[in-house]
Design a protein that fits this description.
It catalyses: pyruvate + phosphate + ATP = phosphoenolpyruvate + AMP + diphosphate + H(+). This protein is of the alpha/beta class and about 850 residues long. It is built from 35 helices and 33 strands. It starts with a strand and ends with a helix.
Length: about 850
Amino acid sequence: KKYVYDFKEGNMSMRGLLGGKGANLAEMTNIGLPVPQGFTITTEACLKYYDEDKKLWDELLKEIDEHLETVEKLQGKKFSDANDPLLFSVRSGAVISMPGMMDTILNLGLNDETVKGLARATNNERFAYDSYRRFIQMFSDVAIGIPKVLFDTKLDNMKENKGVTQDTDLDANDLKKLVEQFKEVYKQEMKEDFPQEPKKQLYKAVEAVFSSWNNNRAIVYRNLNGISHDLGTAVNVQSMVFGNKGETSGTGVAFTRNPATGENKLFGEFLMNAQGEDVVAGIRTPKSIDTLRDINPDCYKQFVDTTHILENHYKDMQDIEFTIEEGRLFFLQTRNGKRTAQAAVNVAVDLVEEGLLTKEEAIMKVEPKQLDQLLHPTFEIEALKKATMLTKGLPASPGAASGKIYFHADEAVEASKKGEEVLLVRQETSPEDIEGMVCSQGILTSRGGMTSHAAVVARGMGKCCVAGCSEVRVDEELKTLRVGDRVFKEGDEISLDGSTGAVYDAKIAKAKAELSGKFGKFMEWVNEVKRLGVYTNADTPRDAKQGRIFGAEGIGLCRTEHMFFSENRIPAVRRMIISRSLEERVKALNELLPMQREDFYGIFKEMREYPVVIRLLDPPLHEFLPKEEKDLQDIANSMGISYEDIRDRVIELEEFNPMLGHRGCRLAVSYPEIARMQARAIIEAAIEIKSEVPNIKPEIMVPLVGHINELKFVKEQMVDEINKVFAEKGEKVEYLIGTMIEVPRAALTADQIATEADFFSFGTNDLTQMTFGFSRDDSSRFLADYNNKKVFDFAPFEQVDQIGVGKLMKMAVEDGRKSNPDLILGICGEHGGDPSSVEFCNALGLTYVSCSPYRVPIARLAAAQAVI
Ligand code: PEP
Ligand code: MG
């Protein structure tokens, strides 16, 4: 079996065996680019190394030696030649690029003898000893694990004693002394001399790469990113070229296009007379790649030509490492460049227009979640560098926000009326805070998870929210926010990044979101390709409009309880809940009816002939019951009953477990008049708009159904009321009645339920809550431990748990369609905007996914990628 490949034996398709770096070095060699030659030891060798009790076996060593000889011939130099030695760099190269593994050892092959040869051959003693001291340091640090700081201290002392600040101010004699000191450090740490035999150095370095595959950082990284532990890493052994041979040599990194904007213009930096890490170390300031034109025009031209060759070959923007050795250009690495969302979209569109990619290929080049960056304001990069991060919470709703902090919704409203930019800070938000949320730039809560009230509502509004920020102590009475020993008072300014969860201690300048022409074009291509419908969750005409701007093709969930949060409605809603008699309740409902009709009319008007799914009231009661004495008194007054009566009634209604309590269709079973009022409002609004939108066909959705009889009961009530409306108006509209599938029993009995339903919509928030038995509101606290301790490597309230929850969904889809072939199927839980869940929904054959407006573009892209 072959475990070692010369660069010229491999190619781009051998990524699995040679790793990303190795495959690309081989490919560059094949297309005739100047690549210092070398060989790659395969990922299979790495796996065998672990099978062989972490030892390099004899045949492998023999194979390495053979390839070493080939490279010696190609380069016309010999490893361990005391006159003019061939030296190597040794680097890891996994299939998927992975921080945390061993990076690079340069100048391998130097020892007390070869260093002299290198000095003679290059006529540059300083260069030779500089290379040697770097090698000792890197080998000791990277391959052996001796702390780097032990060497850095020696280097710093040397400079201090000499009264200089720059490494380049040290001369050959200084460096010779440094080499002796470095070797001494090695001996003290290892109780043996620094290895002088070049082959020993090489074998040791290869082992170091293999064992770095299983170091802690690498394992953590793989767990976090769902990368398999069985892939192994390859090792690349490449002959050295030197950028530190004097003023005609140099080294640098470049992107073929601008990775921040996507602009088709070379972007990069280099340093003359430097090696590897100098460019990124920040000690000397690198020069822009453009200035290479003046320093060495031939080299520059060759560089530019080669970037074109590489882009045409890889059909993507490249990230390139290069070295110039005495005026000769070499390429050390190329890979597809990492980029911002803006650059990703712009490059993808440009590459299609340049004829390099098909639209489908371009669609696959953009990561759906990245699009978020394009839809929200962000902090200015320079301003952000100056800010101090206080702590991190959950990135509940993306965007950047700065403002003065307020701890109560009404105070936030007051301040914003005065023109202040405000942030609402609460332990957790409740429906009463809604207006405070609307007027705020962003929301910060110390409790609650990704599906907490604050998170869901903020996402719906496209407003920045950092939730569950457990290191923050919020005292709503004292109006203080505490993080460690920092205390912020009402009116102090902070900033929030809802995309990362970071909280900063001051105001930070922002850059506005811009949806460029290329973004629009890209999203048109996405629509041409995708099969799934993408709807939005919207409770107001404003949300609906935002959803339409982002390309939503319908409303998959209109949560009517969210319509009741405003100041002028909540008293009537509370009276409706608190009423002890039908008569009282109907009175309250009659007040709400015209408001609801208007709400629905507004939404229909915005959505025109696109489908609109309106859900019956589904309020966890605790969110609506009055708590403050003043509110209780107000209700007592307006209902003409005593304060004590109201208080007793509220106590009576309190539940220990409201999320499993009197909500959803259960409320409609107890009080059918509520469902009747809502059905009437929907149908009356539809009749009203029919002259403008002749095809209007509202869809009414019943929440929290677990048994067919629940649906049957509520449906009968509504149909009866709707028929009354038809009779009164002398006019009819078409409508659909369906149900959410969010209680496990509903999924298990989907065959029965489908006989009564025109559509199903998976409420995966509740379905996840009830399938796992994890509270939506509280589980984020312990789920963090699950992730830290690697019990879970997924977040069940963000991505559909395909194995468990997904099984229920699949069953419901299949059984539901069997008994009702026309059944429309959708999803409206938060998962509807998550790319992996969208892919799953596409595979299940759902009709549409629905998500908050700001996630619509992400879901569209994910839906397109799911079919490519
Ligand atoms: C759900 O449970 O997934 C859902 C969409 O309903 P809500 O979040 O309003 O409970
Ligand atoms: Mg629900």
